[in-house]
Sequence to fold (597 residues):
Amino acid sequence: MPGDCMKCRKQCLKWNGVIPMDTTYIENQIEQLKKAIYRQVEHRTLVKYTGDPLVDENQLFYLLLPLLNGDHWDEENYEGVIAVGIVEASLAEHSYIDEHDATSKVQQLTVLSGDYYSGRFYEILANSGNISLIRELSESVILRSEHEIRIYEPNRYAIDDWLETLTIIETECISRFYQLYNYNHYLYIMKKHLLILRLQNELLNYREGNSSLLLQKMMESFQRSEDMNFEHYLQNKIDGLVHQLRELLRTSSMKSELKRYIEERLIRESKER
Amino acid sequence: MEKMKLQKLYSDFKPDIDIIENELEKALQSTSHLLNDASLHLLHAGGKRIRPLFVLMSAKFGNYSIDRMKYAAVPLELIHMGSLVHDDVIDHSNMRRGRPTVRSQWNNRVAMLTGSFIFGRAIQYVTHIENPKAHQILARTMVEICKGEIIQIEDKFRINQNLKDYFRRIKRKTALLIESSCEVGAVVAEADPEVTKRLKRFGYYVGMSYQIVDDVLDFTSTDKQLGKPAGSDLLQGNITLPILLMKNHPKILRFIERASKGIVTEQERLEMLQIVRKSDSIKQALKISDQYLEKAMKEVERLPDNPTKKRLKEIALFIGKRKF
Fold:
């Protein structure tokens, strides 16, 4: 059973992919990882005021992808994905801070929840002596901060620069994890898919009149460089990325169940959005 | 003046502190101009650099090498700096060290990203040290500081707190980082475990004294000396030792009540400062600070003979008597 696999890691290492893998199985794995992340950062006051940590199930799926596909996987990897999930949650908390007024108790505790999670990721990896992953994740936090702050800079960036920024925000921590543990064969699929999801989300918000600051910056760059409706441009961009992702999936040696899951996710997310 | 006194005290370490200062500047370099400006803005605002100093002084009881110790000293200061940037968001502070805060010069989101960037750099920097023990100390410290700040928010304007609550809070808020500076310095320099324990305890006692003096200075210093309005702690709802020692004073109780509603006038703030300054609580608080310093001195006495012992004592005394 999937649950036993996590607890009894020896079985996990020997797992040869014979166990039937469907959407429920994958979602159970994601749910277990989510709960493991919650357990590692549980704090009574924070849960009361700021709720559970913000974790993105799509990101969790990609963190678990090597395990699901039967790659080498051990205790260190599982602890690593928990740490990556915590870093993502930390940065997500901080993105909820109001630009001008963070004086409410909830906002103050949101600042601290991000800092607390950040300390916990470091503590977990320090306790197991995983200094390599500490380094990778600290560097990804640095890079993400450098990119996220671009929206407040007076510099004008090209639209492709903004796409690069979005890719880094969505995928840098996972990329570092893949690179450290030699899971690079999933890199392009993960990057394309998470960028598509982010762009779909931005497009939906745009259509609802709630454009993010980043999207507004993209629009400014677009107006200057293209002779095309922005919405149309963004939809074309997404369609192009979806096509590229499908191509990557077609040529990938990944288990067919996982390819199907990613396809389902693409269709489901685009319908939901 | 006070800063000059401190610099004189650590003149032996001046060349190494200069190296740390340069390393701090290098560590804060970013590909983003805005992050450069925001983080260097804070670095150039000064600061006493006591945390790196304690790292270096403690390392003198082991195998000292500035090339190695800088990887411990720089992160300690960066963690402190990062937490200040985020604290200013929490406290909605406009001024720090006489300069506009990152949040007031730009905005809260820029401050959040700047703080995260600085924390990221701190952790990245310390990964040059392979000793897991050093990482465990720093990581635990970061977590405990946050827990302390969470408690501080829960305790805001809570007048029915006791001295134990206060000491527990300042331990996490300040003492732990100074304690860790001493411990990490000793651990990275591979000092004897018994010596490491003594230095750790020394850092804890000095840190407790440091925060008590800080809390006293918030009432006794001028706005100019503080670089922010005197009495800001109480205005923010932080009940510190001088107030806890006179918390039944009716005017102070009324002030806290009004501060919790955000309706304190400038006249009321000045009146509150007068009451606290004239009270016996300042003297009592400083006496408690001295008791911590005495304990710190005892720990120094038990350290093996080393020229740095004298410096540790002098720095500890300076911290207890400082006026900024």
